[in-house]
Write a sequence for this structure.
């Protein structure tokens, strides 16, 4: 596929070496085992083929991607996930798949993903608060997994649930939200090839603060569609209620498409701040569907996106 997202560049071509080195140091620090972990991380690089869906924008640094997060299970502050997620137990891990599927069950993560090819996809990732990053994800199409478990004809939506483990998640313990964190997609959105389940970034297994060991990424939606540390995927015939709708139904709708023409009640959606450029970084114009319109605009033909926000 040739398009403006595909220049044939690999992320390593556009990532200064110092970021690689910092990345190693960061991962080693997170593992808390110094030089040994450093060697281990180098060996453990995930083999993934580059995806034609990648953007050619330069990725953010690993420091930005792992240091400025929303993961309310660990607290409200952007630095809380990096501070508090280190103790999260991510192995063993299983995902319950239920509802309108042929093969429901509790799937061990390895079984679930066995034989599904991993891809490296550099996606623009935008948050509802109008900041954005460019992230080199490792993942695979959600559709590959849904095909494996067999979606029944009556399934119209997919509901996602994140882990809620009070012992290891201070924000869950403190009752910051109505846990577990919930998200949802319409089935055609879920089956779109842009929608991935990500298991890593920057060539390594997913850092905990970014939603280890497996999280959703829907690049034409706001980041809050991207539920982290997934433990349940349910196929339903009715629209699932998301955490954000539950909190502020007038501010957050089910669709959450990035739409610069429709302002959020408390701020403009017309531009975004790319993290990493410093406090005075120039804002960039937000593009409808986060720039992925050629792949997804047709999903919403005939819908009024000001109403279906
Ligand atoms: N998933 C869970 N379980 N809990 C959260 O608080 N926050 C969402 C989304 N997924 C969130 C979540 C929001 S608002 C954003 S912007 C992205 O995760 C942030 O992802 P990142 O920290 O990897 O950049």
């Amino acid at each position: 596929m040739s398009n403006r997202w595909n220049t044939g560049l690999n992320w390593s071509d556009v990532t200064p070496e110092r970021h690689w080195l910092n990345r190693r140091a960061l991962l080693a620090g997170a593992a808390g085992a110094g030089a040994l972990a450093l060697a281990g991380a180098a060996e453990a690089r995930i083999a993934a083929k580059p995806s034609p869906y990648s953007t050619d924008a330069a990725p953010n640094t690993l420091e930005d991607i792992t240091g400025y997060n929303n993961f309310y299970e660990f607290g409200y502050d952007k630095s809380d996930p990096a501070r508090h997620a280190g103790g999260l137990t991510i192995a063993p891990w299983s995902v319950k798949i239920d509802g309108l599927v042929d093969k429901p069950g509790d799937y061990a993560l390895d079984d679930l993903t066995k034989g599904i090819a991993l891809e490296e996809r550099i996606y623009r990732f935008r948050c509802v608060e109008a900041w954005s990053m460019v992230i080199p994800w490792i993942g695979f199409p959600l559709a590959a997994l849904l095909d494996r478990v067999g979606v029944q004809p009556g399934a119209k939506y997919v509901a996602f649930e994140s882990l809620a483990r009070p012992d290891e998640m201070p924000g869950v313990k403190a009752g910051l939200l109505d846990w577990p964190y919930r998200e949802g997609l319409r089935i055609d959105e879920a089956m779109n090839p842009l929608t991935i389940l990500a298991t890593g970034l920057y060539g390594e297994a997913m850092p905990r603060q970014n939603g280890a060991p497996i999280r959703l990424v829907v690049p034409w939606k706001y980041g809050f569609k991207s539920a982290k540390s997934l433990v349940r995927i349910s196929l339903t015939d009715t629209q699932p209620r998301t955490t954000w709708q539950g909190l502020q139904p007038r501010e957050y709708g089910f669709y959450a498409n990035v739409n610069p023409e429709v302002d959020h009640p408390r701020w403009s959606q017309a531009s975004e701040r790319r993290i990493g450029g410093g406090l005075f970084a120039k804002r960039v114009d937000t593009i409808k569907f986060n720039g992925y319109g050629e792949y997804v605009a047709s999903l919403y033909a005939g819908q009024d996106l000001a109403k279906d926000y």
In short: Residues 92 and 138 are 20 Å apart (CA to CA). The longest strand covers residues 131-141.
